[in-house]
Amino acid sequence: METTLPASQEEVYRFKTNINCSGCVAKVTPALNAAKGIQHWEVDTNVKDKILSIHPQGISKQEVIEAVKSSGFKIETIE
Length: 79
Description:
The chain is an alpha+beta fold. The protein has a single domain (10-77), classed as Alpha-Beta Plaits. Helix content is 29%, strand content 27%. The chain has 2 helices and 4 strands. It has helices at 22-34, 61-70; strands at 13-17, 38-44, 51-56, 75-77. A 4-stranded antiparallel β-sheet has the order 2-3-1-4, with helices on one face. The model is unreliable at 1-6 (pLDDT under 50).
């Protein structure tokens, strides 16, 4: 029997980025969509720190960082 965590207990990685507009989101989309192990991702461009939220499904934080940097953006983990 498979169990799933309630939404409030799902793991979410959060990062500060410089992905600040729809054009930037479009530029990083191919790298994040191609990365294996991401269930869902989104960027809040309406806040100062441009928060990237990743719902992981096997990907590490370091792999997310590498994918974003490969698209030319800055990224740092929020602890």
